[in-house]
């Protein structure tokens, strides 16, 4: 198929996503528990935008002609890598589908995608729309199954040429090992995080509270890049904690299909119990429970928006990824100190910086060892912005031009030139 034909299919697919926006959003909320308004007004439109972005790339992927030190013609070809295996998580099922399927198809690959066992529905639905858009059968194959069986089979398969995985760091290590033990397929990993959100003493406290609240509590706290270590300068610390508490108490938790609800249930019982265990760790380790700390109601996997203050770097809640609505607020008094403490983590996915000082922002953006730094904003995920991590937060990048490299092989072709007019 020509690159132009691939582009047209992705453009038609984006149109169909928009046409079926409400049904797709309802499936995502039903499957995952996220607020319907979030799915319908943010996430599904973002999928259509991503597909148009990759449609635009499809016929602009090309190699180079390289000058050689002698009479040779040198071409560098960028070829489809072949069969791509893709494993997506349950926290953003549809967006992760788009992040992986878009570049793989733009580059001319076929793929086998495994959905998370908790959230298979939206990927199955939109894959049907891909066929309606003109994609031939067998190009995109969706497998619903469990990690230790279907996921392991995909990672180990000798006919899979490339593997992309989004999920926990521990599972990512298993995936990488299985890929290495099989055919040494290339692997990209987008893994966990414990992202610092640094609020300087020159900050507008009210604005900083709202942004830090969003950075942590968005999507029930189930974000790999959540600002889960909120570092606040000592001069504004007490004011910040009080206002963060007031904001958390106003957060609307309930039926995700109801208008105005900000927080739905956690994904399942396992995650629900894990979050409650971390809350107990926080209390037992001596952090101050400012608000929340328990389930909400007596049915469903709802958890009260929870805040801890007086959190120390060595505590479990400051070290490990909770993946839930639990904000840990830490105090600092010096720029160099907060840089050192922010970087003292196995993770390096993202960070937030809140300051009025350009010098401070420039210092922090270069010093923080993370893949994304948001300055006076958070969770901006435009199609062209690359996303991925340092350290144990992953290998490679999703979105943007960098994601195309994941799905292309580079081949050098060298031929002699007889009686060259020029070299």
TrEMBL record:
Assembly information from the UniProt record: Homotetramer.
GO molecular function, one term: retinal dehydrogenase (NAD+) activity
Organism: Urochloa decumbens
Coiled-coil region(s): none
Catalytic activity of the protein: all-trans-13,14-dihydroretinal + NAD(+) + H2O = all-trans-13,14-dihydroretinoate + NADH + 2 H(+); all-trans-retinal + NAD(+) + H2O = all-trans-retinoate + NADH + 2 H(+); retinal + NAD(+) + H2O = retinoate + NADH + 2 H(+)
GO cellular component, one term: cytoplasm
Enzyme class: oxidoreductase
Name the UniProt record assigns to this protein: Retinaldehyde dehydrogenase 3
The UniProt record lists the keyword Nucleotide-binding: no
PANTHER family: ALDEHYDE DEHYDROGENASE-RELATED
Residues of the Aldehyde dehydrogenase domain: 1-413
Any GO BP annotation: retinoic acid biosynthetic process
Family annotation (InterPro entries): Ald_DH/histidinol_DH, Ald_DH_C, Ald_DH_CS_CYS, Ald_DH_CS_GLU, Ald_DH_N, Aldehyde_DH_dom
Pathway assignment: Cofactor metabolism; retinol metabolism
Enzyme Commission code: 1.2.1.36
Locations listed in the record: Cytoplasm
